[in-house]
Design goal:
47% helix; alpha+beta; 20% strand; DNA polymerase, domain 1; 10 helices; OB fold (Dihydrolipoamide Acetyltransferase, E2P)
């Protein structure tokens, strides 16, 4: 199961809503929302995405998200009857994340129906199923993954673990991480994916 990818953008296709990321010489095709696509860099730029692996008998697909919060909402949407990955991505791409969460929290049927492919019945199902579940996202739309601790040392330890799992040596990671912190990165209000991305950029810039 793939939960996170970081590599270099090979291609990005707005028409199909997908990017191809080169991770260690392997090109991963990842489907993304329009909101995530907007923050994915151009070819040859570094890209970091949180991943959901969708497996069926006739299909194996990766879906990518700019933040853990967007991934969490995607999973919530998949739990709605008759809403599959395609509809879930359409909903995520319909509005900026914070605005979308607000529409869901306040049960704004009319706003959801403006999203291509989302009719009245689907909008009602989404709002009925999600209900108060989006309240936490509304209070902190850029929340980090549950494993990301609030303290600085714990957050940096999590970043080290991610990069070591990707194959980097611990000493190299620690040196690169120290450079990121020295450059002004602060644990206060920081996110794990941002810290990992910055540290990885240092590692690749040696």
């Amino acid at each position: 199961m793939i939960g996170w990818l970081s590599g270099v953008v090979l291609t990005r296709d707005a028409a199909q809503g997908l990017v191809v990321i080169n991770v260690g010489g392997v090109g991963y095709e990842v489907r993304v929302s329009l909101q995530t696509l907007a923050v994915v860099g151009d070819p040859d730029e570094l890209c970091t995405l949180w991943i959901y692996t969708h497996a069926r008998e006739d299909m194996l697909a990766l879906f990518g998200f700019a933040t853990p919060a967007e991934k969490q909402l995607f999973l919530m949407l998949l739990g709605v009857p008759k809403v599959g990955p395609k509809h879930a991505l359409s909903v995520l791409g319909g509005f900026p994340f914070a605005e979308l969460v607000e529409h869901l929290r306040l049960a704004r049927h009319d706003q959801l129906q403006k999203i291509p492919g989302i009719g009245k019945k689907t909008a009602e199902l989404i709002l009925l199923s999600l209900g108060d579940k989006v309240a936490a996202l509304a209070s902190d739309p850029e929340q980090t993954a549950p494993t990301a601790a609030a303290g600085g040392s714990a957050l940096q330890d999590d970043a080290k673990a991610v990069l070591v799992d990707l194959g980097w040596r611990l000493k190299e990671v620690e040196t690169a991480l120290a450079r990121v912190v020295a450059a002004g990165w602060s644990d206060e209000g920081g996110a794990l994916d941002d810290l990992v991305r910055r540290t990885l950029a240092q590692l690749m810039d040696r």
